[in-house]
Amino acid sequence: MADIQVKELTFGYAESKPVLQGISLSFDGRSTAIIGQNGAGKTTFVKLLKGLLKPTAGDVLIDGQNTREATVASLAGRIGMVFQNPNDQIFKNKVLDEVMFGPLNIGMSEGEAKEHAEAALALVGLCGLEQENPYDLSLSERKMVAIASILAMDTGVVIFDEPTIAQDWRGRRTIGSIIRGLRERGKLVIAILHDMDFVAEYFERTVVFAKGRVLLDGGTREVFAKEECLRAAYLEPPHVTQLCKSLGYNEVFLTAEDFVSHVKGNGFTV
Predict the structure, then answer these.
(1) 102 and 156, same domain (yes or no)
(2) What is the pTM of this model?
(3) Phi and psi at residue 220, to the nearest 5°
(4) How does pLDDT run across 40-96, given as a tens digit for each residue?
């Protein structure tokens, strides 16, 4: 797993208007969700991690290497990023070629790249579509193609930008399973999300961005317990958390399973 250290990071597309200001974070092995309103600086932040942008001030260190001194190509084998819109990522006219492109680009042999690509397509549920044109697929399937193309690269860090967009219940469960699987394999998973229920179910750590700064950072249960801070960032806790609060419970429950386990543990039958 790559070591990422962010030190006093500031960035602005225009010098007079910083998008991010003085952000310092270190990432451990926990799956980490980055949440906040549109315009809070989330996508800009992960682009800086990926090396697609360079800091105005401060530093981003990947395994001790400053991204100021690294090319995007040199970081590609360590950090994979799934864009929010798969149409911004896909450019090949066959699914298999699309998913093989990343592995080939970081030096895998054709045989190894094909093996990784087929395994990734199986993980996202797209077996049998290898020869299809991605643009003949639905938006949700194209999102899965984009995810597979990054999984096939087997990077130490995987960044997802809004992974649940256009996904139904089955797609959400598939992506959640992938995130847990990556975590179990020692990968660092970072995701930008507006879906608080998904955050609650699949992420161990949550970082709240507001107006270009880190407002909250901690375990997901701890973060969702801070209602006033969430309101200041124009965010709401997960639906189960809100429901249990309205029922008079002081504990913070993140999922229905969480609540049921608590009730059973206190001698009630569900």
Answers:
(1) yes
(2) 0.93
(3) -60, -40
(4) 999 999 999 999 999 999 999 999 999 999 999 999 999 999 999 999 999 999 999
Q: Are 142 and 269 members of one domain?
A: no
pLDDT digits (tens, 9 = 90+) for 174-198: 999 999 999 999 999 999 999 999 9
Q: How many domains does the chain have?
A: 2
Domain that holds residue 244: 238-270
What average pLDDT does range 14-30 have in this prediction?
91
**pLDDT tier, 16 (very low <50, low <70, confident <90, very high otherwise):** confident
Do 230 and 247 lie in a common domain? Answer: no
Core vs surface per residue 187-206: b (16+ CB within 10 A) or e: bbbbbbbebbbbbbbbbebb
Amino acid at 57: A
